[in-house]
Amino acid sequence: MTGPRRRAERHVAVAFGVAALAAAFFAAMYVLGDDTQLLGLGLLVAFAGLAVGFALWARTLLPQGPFVEEREPMISPLPERRALASEFARDEAPLTRTALPRRMLTLALGVLGLAALFPVRSLLARGPNPWRALAATPWRAGVRVVNDRGRPVRPGDVAEGGVVTVFPEGRAGIGDAAVLLIRVDPADLELPPGRGNWTVDGLVAYSKLCTHAGCPVGLYVKQTRQLLCPCHQSLFDVLGGARPVAGPAARPLPQLPLGVGADGTLVARGGLSGPPGPGYWRKT
């Protein structure tokens, strides 16, 4: 039985060795390249090697059944108990006499664990912080307001009751920076405290991204002076700081403070009053 057992141990060891090499290949490809197909192939071979190794170990190196447990008598005779104790005392237990497969299994799991650290490190150390990146927009104090063609917007370009989608200069077309510029009667405005000087001749500016699911709020109801999100029918009161008055949205549209530059064009006097887009920013 020594010969077949040695061959079985070598087969298990080879399977675990293949898993270790494949895990090392995955780590190397992750560092040196960005071919997702090769990365997937490396993981496939690594886990396949582990699966084959475990299957061969169970099939060839562990005791094979069936095993029958006699229930009577409940207490084994003394000779059987001595034989069992002697069996456990021998250095021939299935899990302790297979040194080579155990070492290769430890190697495969160790290399695979080290390879998994590379993607985890990327999540922690590479790229911008997702919370900061999602909260920030190109709007800053002094940035000129432009239309979708990149042309600066002047206060007189928006008629009474008119709506224009505008962007920060140099970022025309950037979705998270889109702002709705609306002209209303200044006497009707009831903005939150501290925003009395955020408008220019009745022009108010709000983020175009709905605070419910991030859909573009592109419908302006002139009669009620409300913005409507077509995705889930959230309504925002333009005169009252774009607070939600209907629908699932629970947060007002962030407002952009406006001013007039030296050349007579509209400029931002700061960033948006809050992060644009869905309301997951609030945890309550």
TrEMBL record:
Transmembrane segments: 12-32, 38-58, 104-124
Pfam families: Rieske
InterPro entries linked to this entry: Rieske_2Fe-2S, Rieske_2Fe-2S_sf, Rieske_Fe-S_prot
Protein name from the UniProt record: Cytochrome bc1 complex Rieske iron-sulfur subunit
Gene3D superfamilies hit by this protein: Rieske [2Fe-2S] iron-sulphur domain (2.102.10.10)
Function: Iron-sulfur subunit of the cytochrome bc1 complex, an essential component of the respiratory electron transport chain required for ATP synthesis. The bc1 complex catalyzes the oxidation of menaquinol and the reduction of cytochrome c in the respiratory chain. The bc1 complex operates through a Q-cycle mechanism that couples electron transfer to generation of the proton gradient that drives ATP synthesis.
PROSITE patterns reported in the protein's UniProt record: RIESKE
Record domain Rieske: where: 198-267
Keyword list, A-Z: 2Fe-2S, Disulfide bond, Iron, Iron-sulfur, Membrane, Metal-binding, Transmembrane, Transmembrane helix
SUPFAM superfamilies: ISP domain (SSF50022)
Alphabetical list of PANTHER family matching this protein: CYTOCHROME B-C1 COMPLEX SUBUNIT RIESKE, MITOCHONDRIAL
Organism (species): Streptosporangium pseudovulgare
